[in-house]
Amino acid sequence: MDGKKLEYKGENALRELERLTMNAREVQEMILKEILTRNGATEYLSKYMEGSTDVAEYKCRVPVITYDEIQPYIQRIANGEDSSIISGYPITEMLTSSGTSGGEPRLMPSIAEDIDRRTYLYNLIMPIMNQYIPGLDKGKAMYLLFVKAETPTACGMPARPVLTSYYKGQHFRHRPRDPFNDYTSPDAAILCPGSHQSMYCQLLAGLIHRHHVLRLGAVFASAFLRSISFLECNWIDLANDIRSGRLNSTITDEECRSAMSALLASPNPMLADEIESICSNGSWKGIICKLWPKAKYIEAVLTGSMAQYIPMLEYYSDAKIPLVCVMYASSECYFGVNLRPLCDPMEVSYTLLPNMGYFEFIPLEDGLGLGLGLDQVKEVENDKVVGLVDVKIGCYYELVVTTFAGLYRYRIGDVLQVSGFHNNAPQFRFICRRNVVLSVDLDKTNEEDLHKSITTSKKLLEANNLILVEYTSHTDTSTIPGHYVLFWEIKCTSDDTSQIIPLDDHLLQDCCIAIEESLDYIYRRCRSNDKSVGPLEIRLVEAGTFEALMDIFISQGSSINQYKTPRCIESSVALKFLNSKVRSCFFSPRDPTWNP
Ligand code: AMP
Hints:
Blueprint: H1 10-22, H2 24-39, H3 43-49, H4 55-61, H5 67-78, E1 91-101, E2 104-111, H6 114-132, E3 140-144, E4 159-160, H7 162-168, H8 170-173, H9 187-190, H10 195-208, E5 213-220, H11 221-244, H12 254-263, H13 269-279, H14 287-291, E6 297-301, H15 310-317, E7 323-324, E8 327-329, E9 334-337, E10 350-352, E11 358-363, E12 386-387, E13 396-402, E14 410-422, E15 425-433, H16 447-462, E16 466-476, E17 483-492, H17 505-518, H18 521-530, E18 537-541, H19 545-555, H20 572-580, E19 582-587
Parallel strand pairs: 1-4, 3-5, 5-6, 6-7, 17-18
Antiparallel strand pairs: 1-2, 8-9, 9-10, 10-15, 11-12, 11-13, 13-14, 14-15, 16-17, 18-19
Helix pairs in contact: 1-6, 10-11, 11-13, 16-17
The site of adenosine monophosphate (AMP) has 17 residues, from strand 1, strand 8, strand 14 and strand 15.
C-alpha cells in the first residue's frame, strides 16, 4: 500500500476516489496480492496456501469463515503469542467489536497502519460534504464523541473499541487544526473515560459555541439522541455554569476541568438566558434548530437498525435540516462512504472503497430472508463467492473481508443490497445484520423483518400523537405455545395534551395485529394454521427504561459510541430489568390472515 496515497485530502481526495472506483477491479487484485505477499508465511495462511501467493489459489483454497474459526488464533495472540500466527506485521491492539461470541465481545486484530486507512476514509467526508453544502469551514462542528475505558488482553495488549482507539491515536489528537476540523468539544472532554462527565462537558461546549455550530451529530443516531435526552435533564445546570462562568462541581476529571475552564473564562448571563428561555419553553420539538440556529445538518449512522431513530431526530429538529449518514465501517475494516449525503436517510447507499481491504460477497438468493433465515447460509462453497466488481444490481449479499491485519475471507455478518455503481465500484444499501432475532417454531424473523413490521404499526401510534422511542423483543417460550414479546417505550409528541387520545387497549391491540399482519408467510401460518405460535404481545415500559437498559449494557462493557439497543434480548438480567418496568401488556386480539 502506498502510504502517501492514504493521506490525500480535499480535491485530491476526490480525484483519488475517482481513480480508485474507476480501477476497482485492479485495485482489489493489487490489495489481495499485497496481503498475500505480506502475510503468506503466517501460520494461518500457510496452512492453506503452502507458500503460494497466487490470488486464484487463495480463492479456491482458503475457506470462508466466521469468528468461531479464527477466534483460537486471535486468542493465542491476545495471550501473548507472536502476531505471525495470522499477520506479517505486528498486531498492535485488539479491537473489541459490538458483535459478540459466546456472550463475549469479539476481538479483531489491528496493525499500526490500519489507522492510516481509517484516517483516509475520514478525510474523504468533508470534501464530499463540501460539494453539497459549501461554507462548512466557516464555523464549528458539534460532534459528540466518546471513548471507553480499556481492558488489556492477558498479555497486556490494548483491547478497546475501534473509535476509542482512533480518538486516542495520534491522527485524531494531532489532526491539522484546519477549519474543517474545528470541533466544539475539547479533546479532553472526548477522551474523558466517565461518560456522564464527557457528555456534560461536550454539551456545555456545544452550548457555549451555539451560534457558531454549522453541523452536529454523533457516530450512531442512538448516541446523539441519548445526548439530547441528557440535555433535557441537565440544561439547568449547564445554563448555570455558563451564567456563573464556573464548571459544575460534579465534573471531577482534571483534564476536563482545565479544558472547560478555558471555555468558561468569564460569566455569560446573556447566553445563559437565551438557553434557559429556549429550553424552558414547553415542547422540545425542534429544539436542535433552536439551540443551534446555524446548524445545516445532523450527522449520524441512520441506516440498519438505526433507521428507527429517524422520527425522533425529525421531531427534535422539526425536520428542518437534513439527516446525513456518511460512512459505513466496522472494527474489522472500514468499508465505504455515502457519495450522496443529502439523500433521504432511507435511500442511503455506501460506495465500498476498493483500497480498504479485499471484499467478497456471498450471494443470498433469498434476499430479504422470507422464510429462509439469512442465518441458514452456514457452509459457504468457495466458488459461490463473488468479487467486488462482480456483484449484480438489486441482488443481496453477505459481506466477506480479507484484511491486512489477519482476517481471511471473514464473514462480517452484514447483509447488503447492490443499489448501483459509482464508476466501477458497487454501491450498497445496508439491509441488516445477518441474524434471526425471533423464532418460536418454523418461523424465523430477522431484524429487518421485525423492524419493517414495527414501522407499519408505528403509523397507528403517530396518528395518535405518539412516537415509539425505542423497542426490543424477546421470544417468550414460558407460555405454550411460545410467542413474540415486544417491549415498547412510547412518548407523546403533542404540545396540546387535550388532543391526546388516552392510550387505550384497542390502539395497542391494533398495533399487535398490524405487526403480525406484516410478518412473513411462515410466521402467519404458524400463528393461524399450525397454532404453533401464540398471539404477539406488546409490553409497554416506563419512560427512560431503554436509557437505563443502555446503562446496564455499558456497565457490562459495551461502548457508549458503538452501543446499539439489542433488537432481541437474551440476557436474563436485561430481561428481568425490562419486565420490572412494564406498565401494561397488550395481546393480539385475533389470528393474522394467512392464505394457503
Ligand atoms: P462494530 O464492529 O462494533 O464497530 O460494529 C460494526 C457493525 O455496525 C457493522 O458490521 C454494521 O453491522 C454496523 N454498522 C456500521 N456502520 C453502519 C452503517 N453506516 N449503517 C448500518 N450499520 C452500520
